């Protein structure tokens, strides 16, 4: 929904964020306000996804580059966390 007239407000934005917004606006040949509005609209819109469960535990989606978590990997990480046992 766009207003007939622009609504002006003042926001404190980190310098690096402002520079990024300006660069995006330049690349898209649009205004900084349109870039910020679009990014806010996208980030605030509800995301639809389905949650799968296995043994009543939610299964999170796997990232493409993430390693597969196996029992062997879990055991290795637990052993690393515990460190070597006491010396006898």
Structural class: mainly alpha
Report low-confidence residues grouped into runs of 5 or more.
none
The global form is elongated
Largest sheet: 2 strands, antiparallel
- Report helical residue fraction: 40-55%
Tally of DSSP helical segments? 3
Percentage of residues in strands: 5-15%
Strand order of the largest sheet: 1-2
Radius of gyration based on Cα positions: 24 Å
What is the average per-residue confidence, as pLDDT, rounded to a whole number?
84
Cα distance spanning the termini: 72 Å
Q: Order of helices and strands, N to C?
A: HHEEH
**Counted beta strands:** 2
Tell me the layout of helices and strands.
Elements: H1 15-28, H2 32-44, E1 52-54, E2 57-59, H3 71-82
Antiparallel strand pairs: 1-2
How would you summarize this macromolecular structure in one to three sentences?
The chain is mainly α and 88 residues long. It has helices spanning 15-28, 32-44, 71-82; strands spanning 52-54, 57-59. The protein has 3 helices and 2 strands; from the N terminus they run ααββα.
């Amino acid at each position: 929904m766009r207003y007939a007239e622009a609504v002006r407000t003042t926001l404190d934005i980190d310098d690096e964020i402002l520079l990024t917004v300006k660069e995006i606006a330049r690349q898209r040949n649009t205004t900084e306000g349109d870039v910020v509005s679009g990014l806010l609209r996208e980030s605030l819109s509800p995301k639809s996804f389905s949650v799968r469960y296995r043994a009543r535990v939610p299964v999170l989606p796997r990232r493409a580059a993430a390693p597969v978590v196996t029992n062997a990997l879990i055991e290795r990480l637990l052993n690393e966390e515990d460190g070597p046992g006491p010396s006898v």
